[in-house]
Amino acid sequence: MSLIVQKFGGTSVGTIEKIQNVAKKVAGFRDQGHDVVVAVSAMSGETNRLIGMANEMQDQPDPREMDVLVSTGEQVTIALLCMALKNIGYDARSYTGGQVSIVTDSSHTKARIQEIDDKKIHDDLDAGRVVVVAGFQGVDESGNITTLGRGGSDTTGVALAAALGADECQIYTDVDGVYTTDPRVVARAQRLEQITFEEMLEMASLGSKVLQIRAVEFAGKYKVPLRVLSTFKEGPGTLITLDEEDSTMEQPVVSGIAFNRDEAKVSVLGVPEAPGVAAQILSAVGDANIEIDVIVQNTSADKKTNDLTFTVNRTELSKAQAIVEKIAADLNAASVDVDDSITKVSVVGVGMRSHAGVASKMFKALADEGINIQMISTSEIKISVIIDERYLELAVRALHTSFGLDKEAEA
Amino acid sequence: MSLIVQKFGGTSVGTIEKIQNVAKKVAGFRDQGHDVVVAVSAMSGETNRLIGMANEMQDQPDPREMDVLVSTGEQVTIALLCMALKNIGYDARSYTGGQVSIVTDSSHTKARIQEIDDKKIHDDLDAGRVVVVAGFQGVDESGNITTLGRGGSDTTGVALAAALGADECQIYTDVDGVYTTDPRVVARAQRLEQITFEEMLEMASLGSKVLQIRAVEFAGKYKVPLRVLSTFKEGPGTLITLDEEDSTMEQPVVSGIAFNRDEAKVSVLGVPEAPGVAAQILSAVGDANIEIDVIVQNTSADKKTNDLTFTVNRTELSKAQAIVEKIAADLNAASVDVDDSITKVSVVGVGMRSHAGVASKMFKALADEGINIQMISTSEIKISVIIDERYLELAVRALHTSFGLDKEAEA
């Protein structure tokens, strides 16, 4: 007998019937003798419906009131799921974030969990109940309702698992695991049996949107075994594990190919060389709350000036451009170029730590397809390149094959 | 400058536009320098939508989870109303029942308010904010969400007014006050400038569904001046006042004519005379949670047996009949008759305390129209008769005219 925390997202609880199916799934684990704590999202579409009303009401909806409003979405789900469980003979009790309580800071709409009081939950588990907790929400020290930001239900699940010392945190979603790359791009993509937290972080932040990145960080930090699996299809899913030294040997060099279609590039050319110039440009962009991803700086051909290039989310390109053009003028830079038809492709794998030659293999595979690399960025376990977005699918397929990830190659 | 508690029901906050209108109305009172606390219901239709989902999920939805579910309805409204107020430049803050906190007993779906902590509200009022509180809901001592039962938002408004020592509690609704009778039955019905709590109780319980009866009781008990007025139409509404001795002289003898179409009659004929027999029959009905309204007992013609007749809500007639038939057999009663084509008509007025002859005037007015009286029940300030439902409109019009309540007669 073990303690399992299960998280079901909006599409898993999107209708009365789907909630009834979740109840059956939970009941199956109870029948096996496990204690079960469930964290749920709002029924799919509900959060958007609520946000839509808020936007009609106020141009910039008040963040505190926004949290009061949208937190009702999960509150509906927890009550309905408990009813569904009771209807098939399983005792259950629901808790809002405030009732647990899940204490957060006061950053409305993007709060961070500080503490979870697990007493009520343990009492209920001891009494043989399934405990159903509203995901995505908490309460600050003054009792104000807070939310963790979009997708925060994953974080709630992991935080509960950590606080309760759960044996496993299962994240149910509409895909049956983490894949070597997006199966819509590469038909031969295959489900990974397991992946390390670090790899998952790189995969998630690079656009494989299976899990919320904060949830993965949280799980890694508190060493909560995390499993991604499908609500609608039986199967073991993908286990996200700690990267233990002695298991590294068996790791494949590269676990997956990630990509992100949402990037855009800003280049400041001919920046006179002087200390702190790059920081000046980048911090102005950061101050405007624009997230910067890849940054590359090179001395330009004349060796007296620098070329600085970075990428931002496409939706923030025009904002970033305006800021940079102003600073570039102050700095007497030669010009500012922007390009929103780029994409980022990355190979990810803890195995590359101990294997040389991943970069050259990657660059060769791209070169063989005639794909020009605009920028390169590397970390310990990933290598990313920025290329023309027209070559995205071609690049991903070539890399997937090149690193031996195709399904048939392993069969 | 005074402190006003305003309660807006579901039809008053049924759409985005209506909530914006409520915000404007509240703002008007703020502009006059008043402190305003607002209690709101769920948007019309929302509570039924939520209950509908619960009924799909569980045959007899769990009461605790039902409260978690339906309390989201008001939570949505408080957030939206605060956004609407902020959008037109008025600071506002929302509170759920649990946040205020409004402490109730643990009777889920029909909880009673025990205590209100007014500290947060006073702090917000001092800071110049409008305080918006979710009606209908509270929290028990263990932190479980409770609801006050259908229509409980009125009670929340009155309880807040009592706790805060408000100068007036305004109940906004879709009618512009309390009328001498239902204007749909008597075109000449007129709005009352004021009415006493006692009269209002009799009017409300007899079917003039303007205010929830518990709210009126509460207001009377805590001497909260209550005003019923329209959300959609300007006007002073009807003030519900204490029945002070020295104002009684100016009271009309009869304030209004109430009626209730939902009653049905159960008669147990030929019950052998013995102590406790009536109690035995009535307590069996009461034990089944069936509310009994009018009760009449008479010795039958043979003087050896009694005839007992009482009325219940029509929806519970068949249940009551089954119970009574069983007991009647045990008691060797002659027969059980039921009749669901009856109606109750009442004249109500504190003035009748000091005026004889109201009953005879009433019975004469009905006799003049050839209406047979089946049962009679009286209290200090009301006289009710049970008649054939075919004569309802005729009876109400005749009494309205007879007691000088017609609009033109006073003009």
Explain this structure:
Chain A is globular, with a radius of gyration of 23 Å. In chain A, strands 3-6-2-1-9-11-12-10 form an 8-stranded mixed beta sheet, with helices on both faces. The first copy, chain A, has a 4-stranded antiparallel beta sheet with strand order 13-18-20-19, sandwiched between helices. In chain A, helix 1 crosses helix 3 (63-87) and helix 9 (277-287) packs antiparallel against helix 10. Chain A is 36% helix and 26% strand. Chain A has helices spanning 16-31, 46-57, 63-87, 97-100, 119-126, 152-164, 197-205, 213-221, 277-287, 317-330, 358-368, 392-402, 407-410, and strands at residues 3-8, 35-40, 92-95, 102-104, 113-116, 130-134, 137-139, 145-147, 168-173, 194-196, 226-230, 238-241, 256-260, 263-272, 292-299, 305-313, 335-339, 342-348, 375-378, 382-388. In chain A, a hairpin with a 7-residue loop joins strand 11 (226-230) and strand 12 (238-241). The longest helix of chain A has 25 residues, at 63-87. Chain A binds chain B through residues 16, 19-20, 50, 53-54, 56-59, 61-62, 64-66, 68-69, 71-72, 75-76, 78-80, 82-84, 86-87, 93-94, 96, 98-99, 143-145, and chain B through 16, 19-20, 50, 53-54, 56-59, 61-62, 64-66, 68-69, 71-72, 75-76, 78-80, 82-84, 86-87, 93-94, 96, 98-99, 143-145.
